[in-house]
Structures are given as C-alpha cells and as structure tokens.
Amino acid sequence: WDNTARIWESESGKLIHTLAGHTKGVNSAIFNPNGSLIVTASWDNTARIWESESGKHIHTLKGHEDNVRSAVFSPDGERIVTASWDETARIWDAKSKEIIHILKGHTSQVESAIFSPDCTRILTVSGGVNYPKTDRTARLWESNSGKLIHTLKGHKNRFQTAVFSPDGSRIVTASWNKTASIWESASGKLLHTLEG
User: Fold this and answer.
1) DSSP letter at 130?
2) What is the pTM of this model?
3) What is the pLDDT of residues 90-138, one digit of tens each?
C-alpha cells in the first residue's frame, strides 16, 4: 500500500491527482453526490475530505481509535458516516466536520456503514475478524438521533456487507456462511435466505 488514493479521468485513463496525506493504507474512497468532494478512509484511524477538482486536502476527521474501514457521504451530501474497527460508526456534519453522533452497540469491528436512500437511517455491519469475538449482526439506526432501531441477526458466520434496496424498503446482507438474506427494513424481519 502506498497510503494514497488517486483520481483518474474515466475516458482516457489519465491520472489527474494523487491524494497523499494518510499515514497508512487507504481502505475506501468515494465522491459526494455532486462530485465536488471525496472522502477517504484509512488504517491510520482517520477519514479525510478532499476537493476533487484540485486534489487539495480539506479536513481530517479524527476520533476513531482503530482502523477506519469505510467512509461515505449521505445521498444529500450533508453528512458523512464512518465505520471503524473500534466497534463504532460515527456520523459527521459534512460542512462543519463535527461529530453528530457515535453509534455504539456492536461488539466487534464495524466493517461498513451506509445511509438509506432517504437519509433517515444508517445501516452498519460488524464482521468480527477477531475470533471468537464475532458480532455477526447488521444494525439499523436513526440518522438524526443515533438511536438503534433494529438488530439483524441470523447469519451463522460473519457479515460481509449490507445494502438498502433503491426504495429503502428492504436490506440485503451477505455472509461468510455462503448465504445472503433479505430483510424488511421497517420491521427488521427476515424475509428470505438466499442459498446455493
């Protein structure tokens, strides 16, 4: 790992900018909805915000106590959620860069966190790399209050990822137990297990 993220021109494949500043490997990089900003997540326990046009570093989001696995903007671009191996996710104001809420409840590493399409909820996934300390859950939170709504349990091995359906009514989770599961987001009810 070279501790950087890079911006490339999609048509020509030309390198536009190298985003350098993280002191350890970069786990993820994603644009905000209008493409003006990029947020990166790193093993150095931080996330960083960059201008996409200039490649200029704007701010470092500090507070996590372990590897930051992912960082994403909300669909309206107003907030950022980060997921960390410190067993928390954090919601940040994208403008002020201040922490709004710390989502606590997982008992092992949080691998990812995403907003629902309408920005009202956040979905977190705990993979639990350090056996036997394995959480094996996804959790649904209110994004405005940070309140836990549902805990999705059922996979017999670690969760790998989870996403909302485009209308936000369902959630699909994937696990190391060779299955995926579909859940109703309003109730947290398991609808189907996909095997094969």
Assistant:
1) S
2) 0.94
3) 999 999 999 999 999 999 899 999 999 999 999 999 976 555 567 888 9
